[in-house]
Write a structure and sequence with these properties.
alpha+beta, disordered N terminus, binds FE2/S2 (inorganic) cluster, binds fe (ii) ion, four-stranded antiparallel β-sheet, 2 domains
Length: 384
């Protein structure tokens, strides 16, 4: 690294630290260099994504022994499996022979054969065979590297850092809000992925504030989420959530042929929608009968993979394609539209940030999640 780039890296870290020390009552947006620095992204891969919990999917996406999924967490390829015993396992998806990724995509398998030289691993990551290696080869030393895995509200979370405390412990403050919704019972209705030409933090921040709904989503959900009801409800070291009280028109009559009853929610509860994120990049909304989520996975300083999904409290037989035109399942068609609207504005932010000409102005109280997120970034990136 040249002395010039070292100086600029220190400058970017100073920008993050300065953001984090702002007052709760008066704060500004992130300095533009924090969205455009490749050196900062490299540091984020090491100090954030190798130590924080990341959502990689839903528990009900791996219903059977042998089911597996793969996902990158920062720059670390991960494979999550359901073993023959029904338990989930998670491993670094990198072959111990010469580092090829072993599993790909998602599906069902009894074992994984590395496509490079054919080393074979079982669902727990143990090396079963290594063709043409000596008989006394130490296979036990060549298992796939284990990572932590935990289910939280039906989400599969993984963490490369084996010393990190449980995600449920870190997010205990959210339990009273989400428990009555029984998200763990909700099943996946739709999944998708797309690439946005914006830094992953631009995508994350876009979800942490709903000030933009009235304008950005004027043609879709904006009018249904009254800005006057918007309030911050819970913020902590790893999260920031706000809520809306939505109009009656968003509380659809329950269709008993598909809906799962939930006696734990009152009529008033049914008009609350929570919106926010678990840092660094798991973003979701929770409503009375369904939730939507996305994961903003960096793939470059100005490119982010958006993995999204919709899940709901519906009794739709597995393998049956949900009817996206059913009024209770409105988010299936709505999310791609909303994502398109968010993609457009986040790409505009990236273009503005790249200019390096403008520092964001003061923000309003309902954007406080951005300050909480900046404080999280600062804590993770600090060398102290
Ligand atoms: S890299 Fe996997 S078998 Fe060689
Ligand atoms: Fe949005």
């Amino acid at each position: 690294m040249s002395s010039g780039s070292e100086k600029s890296m220190l400058g970017v870290l100073d920008s993050v630290a300065a953001m984090a020390t702002q007052q709760d009552a008066e704060f500004s947006g992130i300095s533009p260099d924090v969205y455009t620095s490749q050196a900062l992204l490299d540091l984020e891969y090491e100090r954030i994504f190798k130590h924080q919990w990341a959502c990689v999917g839903r528990f009900d996406e791996l219903p059977n022994p042998g089911d597996y999924l793969t996902a990158d967490v920062g720059i670390v390829p991960i494979v999550v499996t359901r073993g023959e015993d029904g338990n989930l396992g998670a491993m670094v998806n990198v072959c111990s022979h010469r580092l090829a990724t072993v599993a790909a995509g998602a599906g069902n398998a009894k074992r994984f054969a590395c496509p490079y030289h054919g080393w074979v691993y079982d669902l727990s990551g143990a090396l079963l065979s290594a063709p043409r290696m000596p008989d006394d080869y130490d296979k036990a030393a060549c298992s796939l590297r284990q990572v932590q895995v935990e289910i939280w509200n039906g989400f599969i979370y993984v963490n490369v850092d084996l010393d990190a405390p449980p995600v449920s412990e870190s997010l205990a403050a959210l339990e009273p809000f989400f428990r009555p919704y029984h998200m763990e019972r909700m099943q996946v209705l739709a999944r998708g992925s797309e690439v946005w030409n914006a830094n992953w933090k631009v995508a994350t921040e876009n979800f942490l504030e709903s000030y933009h709904l009235e304008m950005t989503h004027a043609a879709s959900i904006g009018p249904l989420f009254p800005q006057g009801t918007l309030k911050m409800v819970s913020e902590g070291p790893m999260h920031a959530f706000h809520s809306f009280t939505v109009g009656e028109e968003l509380v659809h009559p329950i269709d008993p042929s598909i809906a799962l009853p939930n006696p734990d929610l009152s009529d008033a509860d049914k008009r609350i929608v929570y919106v926010g994120g678990v840092f660094p990049n798991h973003l979701f909304t929770v409503a009375y009968d369904q939730f939507t989520w996305m994961r903003a996975q960096p793939i470059g300083v100005d490119k982010t993979l958006i993995d999204w999904g919709v899940a709901g409290a519906f009794n739709i037989p597995r393998g049956t394609k949900p009817d996206a035109n059913h009024p209770n399942l409105y988010y299936i068609n709505e999310i791609p539209k909303l994502n398109g609207e968010d993609r457009s504005v986040t790409e505009r932010v990236q273009k503005g940030a790249r200019s390096g000409m403008i520092t964001p102005s003061k923000l309003q109280a309902n954007e406080h999640g951005l300050l909480t997120f900046a404080r999280f970034l600062s804590r993770c990136l600090s060398t102290n």
